[in-house]
Amino acid sequence: MLKLKSTLAVGCLASVEMKHNVDEQQEECLRKCGSKASKNGTNGLCFNCYQQSLKNPEGDIQQKPGNKPKSSKSPNADNDGRPESSSPTCSTKRKRCEQCKVKLPLIPMECRCGKVFCKLHRYAAEHQCTFDYRKMAAKEIARNNPKVEAEKLRKI
């Protein structure tokens, strides 16, 4: 039994060392926001900075000189210890359902009218949708079914 426990302890240490090595391999975000950069095609940016760069394509992906890494204590703190209210560069506000104001999951349901809804109000009848489905269907039918006419016969 003692050998089994010592083997398990060595296995646990090996897994801790592997996790530590994975953390060391991750690089910081190029915008110096203090987050770790994602490895899956985000050009060296963290997830939040990458999402912002997709929303603002004219924004430079490279390091901006004004951005500094986040610190645990803000130099602009008031006397009572609260930091000055400024919007952080990498925060994203979670959207809410237009009908019932419930927080939405990471992938919200977007209606064709352009609004986002929870799983209860995602159907058009549940949120008084303003999108004209009948007109869209008529256009799609006209596009998919062109008018077929035979050539006119010449009179002899």
Give an overview of the whole structure.
This protein folds into two domains: 1-66, no CATH class; 93-145, AN1-like Zinc finger (Zf-an1 domain). 29% of the residues lie in helices and 3% in strands. It has helices spanning 2-25, 47-55, 133-144; strands at residues 109-110, 116-117. A two-stranded antiparallel ribbon has the order 1-2.
Beta strands, count? 2
Q: Uncertain segments of ≥5 residues (pLDDT<50)?
A: 1-24, 60-83
Largest beta-sheet details: 2 strands, antiparallel
Fraction of helical residues: 25-40%
Briefly, what is this?
The protein is an all-alpha fold and 156 residues long. It contains three helices and two strands.
Write the layout of secondary structure elements.
Elements: H1 2-25, H2 47-55, E1 109-110, E2 116-117, H3 133-144
Antiparallel strand pairs: 1-2
What keywords describe this structure?
156 residues; mainly alpha; Zf-an1 domain; 2 domains; two-stranded antiparallel ribbon; 29% helix; elongated; disordered N terminus
